[in-house]
Amino acid sequence: MARKSRKHLKLAVSVSKDTVGYIRLSVLNRDHYGSIENQRLMIEEWGRQHQIPIMRYYIDNAFSGKRFDRPAFQEMLQDIQEGKIDCVVVKDLSRLGRDYITVGYYLEMFFPNNNIRFVSINDQFDTTDGITNRDKSAYIQSSTRVPLINLFNEQVSVETKMKVEVVLDMKAQHGEFIGPRAPFGYQKSNENPSQLVPDPVAAVIVRKIFEMAASGTGVTGIVRYLNGRELPTPIQYARAQGLDGNFDDGNGSWNSRSVKYILTNRTYTGMLVQGKEKRAVEATHEPLVDAGTFDAIQKAFQTRAYNVVPQGQSADNILKGKVICGCCGGKMQRKRGTNHADWHFFTCITKNRLGADKCTGMYVREEDVLSAIYRQLKDYVNEHYITNSAYKQQIQEYTGQISELSQRKTMAWINAMEHYEQYVQGEISKEEFRVVQDIANQSKEALIQVTESKVAYEKQYAKFRKLLSASSKDIPLSEIADCIDKVVVDGGGKIVVKWSIDQNRIGAVGTNMENP
Fold it and tell me: How confident is the model at residue 509 (pLDDT cuts 50, 70, 90)?
């Protein structure tokens, strides 16, 4: 009787039901250019077109779509249960959340059970009168199916990437720094991460580099100065400041490339050039060198011997960056013979930069390197020769695997979608659905793996064919430069060629065909 009394008491209270808007801004999307306001404007426009006033908004700022304990969202659910709301409008389904099981629960159970009309503007999704069409044929063909499948895959769409690019481009136009970490010599401001400020330690090194270049010191001389005083390289300094991740730490020494990168980076003049469109904005931060000095250094690079590659050298250096010193592991530099003779040689410049105690200084004539490449190329081709018939047979096996796995994947995902509907309707448990979902995901991964293996096999075989043609001199060596990983020059004239072709993949066909 007490329960009945309370129920009658609640019915006696007159509650006004409203159409409301729900807005969510993700953790990663912290821009200040109208994301929340844009969502509000879209919802307001929908209300105007349908002559339905939006009475209030529930806004969760900086909350992930994977979480559903968001305060404004929970407040909205409470108001729904109290009968204060009859329609919820969002910009798109991702604003509601990015976990398809939980979102599916609200779309197909919670909202209908509470007679809530739910509208997703961008997805053209409208549960008019709070009732979802459960006729299977109509449901599959309806516009609700596409967003639900997107949620089922739990993948952020390409549109999200495009939105991020638009935001970053907008920031670049406004002169805000959009890089993941500040250039050497700067740091991100604690008050505003989009603002660069000089780093008290690194800025001193950068200013010294520009000062030496402006006074006429060459790049090699600057490198010697920095290494002689054991000043930290940009990556070393970043590591010391807490940088974590998979970055190339180099050999711990300054080199010509890192110095020249600083000397040609216009960021140090107080200008930012960023984004795909190369947005240039001046006076965005404190410069470490004045524009006049910077421009004079750029002119000197063109008129004096500042270039890392010596003047007079042939531009046709097909082995650039690939000839390696067997003593120190450094890259060897190609130079023209004495008195501009019509021949070239490779020499290790580590000895010149760091001293004889770091490297003995390997030297080899270019013609000897090319002869070694041809000789070892013929040996390699003879050892790993693949006939056209063998290649076609391998491709046929891959194609058969892909066809079979595609059918398995299709059946597994159809089965998973049927179990998803059963889960939403309460006919099976979440654990039972997860088992079917895992099988579907395994079938998808198996197909991806074999498909990628086939593509990689085709690419590697194409490289092999190029090597074969080059060994017969049907094509020049420049055509197979991408097939050469490196050429190691050791003492006593020993030259070893390392090929960038995965022989383990040539002739190897994926065998992961077990039932998932």
Answer: very low
pLDDT the model gives residue 313: 37
- Highest-confidence segment of 71-80, 93-102, 347-356, 504-513: 71-80
Q: Is the pLDDT of residue 191 over 80?
A: yes
HSE-up (13 A, CA, CB side) for residue 173: 8
The residue among 94, 109, 86, 116 whose CA lies nearest residue 29 is: 94
307 vs 300: CA distance, rounded Å: 9
Identify which of 159, 119, 165 has the alpha carbon closest to the alpha carbon of residue 143. Answer: 119
Calculate the CA dihedral of residues 416, 417, 421, 423 and round it to 10 degrees.
Answer: 30
Whole-prediction pTM value? 0.41
Going edge to edge, which strands form the sheet with 344-348? 332-336, 344-348, 363-365
What HEC string does 266-319 produce? Answer: HHHHCCEEECCCCEEECCCCCCCCCHHHHHHHHHHHHHCCCCCCCCCCCCCCCC
Residue 198 token pair: 């000089």
SS3 content of the chain, % helix, strand, coil (to 5): 50, 15, 35
β-bridge partners, 195: none
Flag whether pLDDT at 206 surpasses 90.
yes
**At which residue do the structure tokens 């920031």 appear?**
171
pLDDT digits (tens, 9 = 90+) for 399-414: 999 999 989 988 888 8
Residue 490 CA to residue 279 CA, distance in Å, equals 47
Residue 198: φ, ψ to 5°: -60, 140
Residues 279-291: pLDDT tens digits? 788 889 999 999 8
Computed from CA positions of residues 52, 58, 59, 63, in that sequence, does the dihedral angle turn out positive or negative?
A: negative
More confident position, 29 or 309: 29
Q: Which residue has the higher pLDDT, 81 or 102?
A: 81
How far does Cα 326 stand from its chain's mean position? Answer: 34
> Letter for the amino acid at 43?
I
Return the DSSP state at 109.
Answer: I
Strand ranges (DSSP E) for 26-70? 56-61
pLDDT score for 302: 62
The token duo for 73 is 């969202």
Question: Rounded to the nearest 5°, which phi and psi values hold at 100?
Answer: -65, -30
The total of other beta-carbon atoms located within 10 Å of residue 350's CB is: 25
